[in-house]
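@channel sequence for tomorrow's demo:
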Amino acid sequence: MTNNDALRRIRYALNLSDDKMIKIFSLAGQEVDRATVSSYLKKDEDPDFKTIGNPMFLAFFEGLIILKRGRSDAQAKEIKEKVTNNLILKKLKIAMDFKSEDMHEVFDLAEMPISKSELSSLFRGTDHRNYKECGDKFLRNFLKGLAIKCRDTEKEAE
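structure tokens (generated this afternoon):
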């Protein structure tokens, strides 16, 4: 899954406005304007489409974590990780402060039950013998379940 596709799905799942997206980037020290955010969210065929690179995409996650959980000293380090579906899943788990039960609930909402061992294998180090790569289908279903969970919670709060 491309960074832009994941960003669009996360924005939808968490119901983030342009202003909230700009704030998230700024929390991670990245100043972006509405036009830039809009260009990241456009479809690939759109002439105004702009690819969001790994450093900016990781900054989005750091900003999301700060927004949802507060600032931490651990976030002060410069991150040069390769963006993978496993990393996206991990960052969302941290930002949303999800435990294993919450992750299972989100996958269940997307009608994609996952075993405990399958879930834990997604969060292992790449050099671990039980590491499993998170495929696009897993991530798409997780984001689908997250949208159901977050958007239903918002409706209940109204």
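heads up for whoever presents: The chain has one domain: 3-157.
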